[in-house]
Amino acid sequence: MVAPTPVVTADWFAARIATLREASGRTPGELAAALGRSASGVRHFESSTRLVGRRYLTLVLEELGHGHLVGPYSTVIDRSRARTLWWQQILPQVKRSEKPAELHQLELLVNFESSATAICCYAPHTVPDLVQTPGYAEALHRIAEPALPELHRALLPGRRAILDQDEPPELTVIIDESVLCREIGGPDVLTEQLARLDALAERPGVTIRIVPSDAATGVEGNFSLLELTAELDDDPGAVFVKTAADWVHFREPGKVARYRARWSALLRHALPLEQSRETIGRLLRRRHAP
């Protein structure tokens, strides 16, 4: 079982405690008084990006009448602390108050991708990051350079490597058929990219579905829907949307649910699995034909 990273666990725990407090009918001030702390301190723990200590974890859960959760929640936090974070040597270490928004979002993205048990990607315009070849990714950067381009380049190999780890997330990708004909980087780059998709489709944990060019799917950009371990009680999952400026993410249950509904609708438009694989293979063979 993949352990969530400290950032992801802290984000989940903060939201979880806020939910339990609200369910008890208490305000931050009332809970603070019961714990002998300040209301601002309680609000800090409910919005923190740092892992909570064992003492506060025990105090707040017992006060809210959920002492039975101390054991399992402590296990999650301990497993998070033991995680190896490959991106720490790549991302600059900047105080949260001084961190640019695009850097913060990029850091969140690699944390959530590395914590995910399942990732669903929709790509209407380009092949999504996690299944790009290096040549395709570099060509795409030249066409539309992202914010913090050097960091994106440095992080991409590690992000794609999650598919090769001992416990990779289940990956489902929906790609518009037009993307498979768009020669980003030229014909050789696209041929290599198609071969990569064809090979990935053979893996048991990877599903690639193609949306026909004539399907009426609506107008929208790409998004990734990430599911996290069941250890994180009532976690809604996360959605990341790639924009021209940076990544935007959503954790609110209602917003995540809307993307789940949109994903289900896109699946209804997509070709069946075998037909999708046949489409990739046919396009690849056509490019190899004399």
TrEMBL record:
Residues covered by the DUF5753 domain: 107-281
> Which molecular-function annotation in GO is an example for this chain?
DNA binding
Q: Name one Pfam family in it.
A: DUF5753
Q: What is this protein called?
A: Helix-turn-helix domain-containing protein
Q: Which organism is it from?
A: Prauserella cavernicola
Classification of source organism: Bacteria, Bacillati, Actinomycetota, Actinomycetes, Pseudonocardiales
